[in-house]
Design a protein that fits this description.
Number of domains: 2
Subunit structure: Part of the signal recognition particle protein translocation system, which is composed of SRP and FtsY.
Largest sheet: 8 strands, mixed
Function: Involved in targeting and insertion of nascent membrane proteins into the cytoplasmic membrane. Acts as a receptor for the complex formed by the signal recognition particle (SRP) and the ribosome-nascent chain (RNC).
Keywords: Cell membrane, Cytoplasm, GTP-binding, Hydrolase, Membrane, Nucleotide-binding, Receptor, Transmembrane, Transmembrane helix
CATH superfamily of the largest domain: P-loop containing nucleotide triphosphate hydrolases
Main location: membrane
CATH topology of the largest domain: Rossmann fold
Strand content: 5-15%
CATH architecture of the largest domain: 3-Layer(aba) Sandwich
Structural class: alpha/beta
Order of helices and strands: HHHHHHHHHEHEHEHEHEHEHEEH
Protein name: Signal recognition particle receptor FtsY
Length: about 375
């Protein structure tokens, strides 16, 4: 034992002990075993799953939970103003009426205007729905000019024809549409017409015309026979921020809805109330009587400032017959011609004005939301002869 102790305290003993300890330490580090996990980063929960973790997440504070999620308000459309609409009017009419203008100018500027040629001119005018009386009047005036001036130059003839057509359309007619609030009430517009003329769509487009002129508009859905008509009108209004008064009951009394719309317009300080009515055949007495009732009921609450008759320009002379009947029942003050860009028969403008004695105030040019424009005689004639 003493010899062992002497060895451990000797230099060699100390070296052996130190060597054993170093080898043991190295072997211990190399042996696989349990390692201490690294410290978690701050604010991260590293607890294993347990009852607390499987429970429902904590509710937000009371104030935050009480706030409803409000969807963003829809972006309202900005309707096109009248000036740009008129530019498109001329371009579209020129494209659809080229046959009319070309054939007339070819006949008048052909250098030989004998009796047969004049008859061809008159036939062309009548075929455009100008009407026999108006066509004869126009041809007689052109004959007098040719006889007096002794010329058939195409540009000269075009100028004369332009002047005479504008005169026939009568630019002196008042084509303004009532759209301003009057003292204590809004202007009231009643829109009527037969089935299939695009009447409800026209009312929606007319609302856009008014909004573009910064008027406060209210719509009345008095076409209660078709729920889809009220839905359609409400959709048109919503696109430009215009409210619609309607009944949720299909077949409700249209006169009552019209009355409520005017009342709501008075109470909401609207500038104008536009009332859509059901399309009706002009030869159905009961339907026309109902239209008369709508007018009478509205007038118990407010005068009616405009009765606009919507006519399909492609119906030609049949449209004139429709216009006569409506004028007898509701005192039409203005005409809206739809689908004017789809026909070469632009003469209906002259025909309907001469027959009813009321002006064409608006024209529909296509399917777009802003394809309704105020009617301007000079622009219309230029488009026909372009």
């Amino acid at each position: 034992m003493d010899s062992v102790l002497d060895f451990l305290y000797s230099v060699w003993g100390i070296a052996v002990v130190v060597g054993v300890l170093v080898v043991g330490l190295i072997v211990g580090l190399m042996r696989p075993g349990r390692r201490r996990p690294p410290a978690p980063p701050p604010d991260v929960d590293v607890r294993g799953p347990g009852p607390a973790d499987t429970a429902a997440p904590e509710a937000p504070p009371h104030d935050a939970a009480a706030q409803p999620s409000t969807p963003p308000a829809p972006t309202l459309e900005r309707p096109e103003r009248a000036g740009r609409r008129m530019q498109r009017l001329r371009a579209r009419l020129a494209r659809s009426n080229t046959a009319f203008g070309r054939s007339l100018l070819a006949l008048l500027g052909g250098g030989k205007l004998d009796e047969e040629a004049w008859e061809d001119v008159e036939d062309t005018l009548i075929a455009s729905d100008l009407g026999v009386e108006a066509a004869t009047q126009l041809v007689d005036k052109l004959k007098q000019r040719v006889s007096a001036e002794g010329t058939t130059d195409e540009e000269t003839m075009r100028g004369w024809l332009r002047e005479d057509l504008i005169e026939l359309i009568d630019p002196s007619m008042d084509r303004r549409i009532s759209s301003r609030r009057l003292e204590d009430r809004p202007a009231v517009l009643l829109v009527v017409g037969v089935n299939g003329t695009g009447k409800t769509t026209t009312v929606g487009k007319l609302a856009r015309v008014m909004v573009a002129e910064e008027r406060k508009v209210l719509l009345g859905a008095a076409d209660t026979f078709r729920a889809a008509a009220a839905d359609q009108l409400q959709t048109w209004g919503a696109r430009v921020g215009v409210d619609t008064i309607r009944s949720d009951k299909e077949g409700a009394d249209p006169a009552a809805v019209a009355f409520d719309a005017v009342k709501a317009g008075q109470e909401s300080d609207a500038d104008v109330v536009i009332i859509d009515t059901a399309g009706r055949l002009h030869n159905k007495a009961n339907l026309m009587d109902e239209l008369g009732k709508i007018k009478r009921v509205i007038e118990k609450r407010s005068p009616i400032d405009e009765v606009l008759l919507v006519l399909d320009a492609t119906t030609g002379q049949n449209g004139l017959k429709q216009a006569e009947v409506f004028a007898q029942v509701v005192n039409v003050t203005g005409i809206v011609l739809t689908k004017l860009d789809g026909t070469a028969k632009g003469g209906i403008v002259v025909g309907v004005q001469r027959q009813l004695g009321v002006p064409v105030k608006l024209v529909g040019l296509g399917e777009g939301p802003d394809d309704l424009a105020p009617f301007d005689p000079a622009t219309f004639v230029d488009a026909l002869l372009d």
